[in-house]
Design a protein that fits this description.
Blueprint lengths: L17 E8 L1 H4 L11 E3 L4 E6 L4 E6 L4 E2 L9 E7 L4 E6 L4 E6 L2 E9 L3 E8 L4 E7 L5 E7 L4 E5 L5 E8 L4 E7 L3 E5 L8 E5 L5 E7 L4 E6 L3 E6 L6 E5 L4 E7 L4 E6 L4 E6 L4 E7 L6 E5 L4 E6 L4 E7 L3
Length: 324
């Protein structure tokens, strides 16, 4: 019998290798066993700490990935919608929800921050630490989409990227030294090479698919995009076309790549299911059913673990990927 979340294209799963280690309960944050609201988290690899924004207490939770225990939170910080980290510089960037502001701080000193102001609310941010370039996307108050480069730390706007569509997510590929932007309506993946200047970029369509989230897979020199229709679309660096890696029956909400074992983790909108795809064979390895609906994920490459955020359960489930 086929799994209900996989199309007949993948009728047989490989032997499971991902095991549940523990469940971190967060009911003390809200004071009751009720839903909790998270911002998008990030992990600082050098310290092994996950920074997780929590909205109701307006704090940043800190998780030690060595012990899977909560450390002292950064309290009274404000409502953070997302955190992005520059690993090489030990810098974190926090987009403030409901505000036209990004706060930059050292990982060791969250309270001492530099504030950068914008004329729109940042929805996605990424940073090139070698050039001090911050790429920020969002929408102005009249719903006009905007993607702009800023000089850090003075906050001077350098260039606006002109491309059709709604910006969904931005990232900086430090291995290939490229900026990438995923657009929707119409959907495309736009790549900018800063070595050639901030005016030079090229766009690739997704073969008629509407993308929602994307991730870099450096080992295979490709980008994978999760789509509205439930497909995982692969785009190789040297190719102009696309290929479908896997097809599910639910809308994809998040994809994360594990470079240690070459696995891709896929979560779905309004779903408890977490799919694991082997990106070397393009096969769905397993589908895990978590205890509650998944809102987001973080991968810990120090310990080969996946942290799955479960807001309805006010908890985080931790899984170990044992590899092939």
């Amino acid at each position: 019998m086929n799994h209900p979340f996989i199309t007949p294209l993948f009728p047989k799963l490989i032997e499971m290798s991902t095991v549940k280690l523990c469940k971190i309960k967060l009911s003390h944050v809200t004071g009751a066993d009720r839903a909790i609201a998270f911002g998008h988290p990030a992990m600082h690899i050098r310290s092994g700490i996950i920074l997780l924004p929590e909205h109701s207490s307006e704090s940043i939770l800190r998780i030690d990935t060595e012990t899977d225990r909560l450390l002292e939170p950064v309290e009274d910080y404000g409502r953070v919608s997302l955190i992005a980290i520059c690993q090489e510089r030990d810098l974190a960037f926090a987009a403030m929800g409901g505000k036209k502001e990004v706060r930059a701080f050292r990982i060791t000193d969250e309270k001492n921050y530099l504030s950068m102001k914008f004329d729109f609310e940042p929805e996605s941010i990424t940073f090139d630490g070698d050039r001090d370039l911050l790429l920020v996307s969002g929408h102005r108050e009249d719903s006009t989409p905007v993607v702009e480069f800023y000089q850090f730390p003075d906050g001077r706007m350098l260039r606006e990227m002109k491309a059709e569509g709604e910006p969904l997510s931005v990232t900086y590929d430090d291995l290939d030294d490229l900026f990438m932007v995923l657009y929707g309506h119409p959907s495309s993946l736009v790549t900018l090479d800063p070595k050639k200047g901030l005016d030079y970029f090229y766009s690739r369509t997704l073969g008629g698919e509407e993308g929602l989230t994307f991730e870099l897979c450096p080992s295979g020199k490709k980008v994978v995009v999760g789509t509205v229709s439930g497909k995982i679309v692969s785009i190789k660096a040297e190719d102009t076309g696309t290929s479908v890696v896997a097809s599910f029956r639910e809308q994809v909400s998040r994809v994360i790549f594990n470079p240690l074992v070459g696995h891709l983790y896929v979560s779905f909108s309004g779903s408890r299911h977490l799919a694991v795809i082997d990106m070397e064979t393009d096969k769905v390895r397993e589908v895990i059913k978590c205890s509650s609906e998944i809102s987001d994920m973080v991968f810990d490459e120090l310990h080969n673990k996946i942290y799955v955020l479960l807001p309805e359960a006010s908890a985080i489930e931790v899984y170990l990927d044992q590899g092939r």
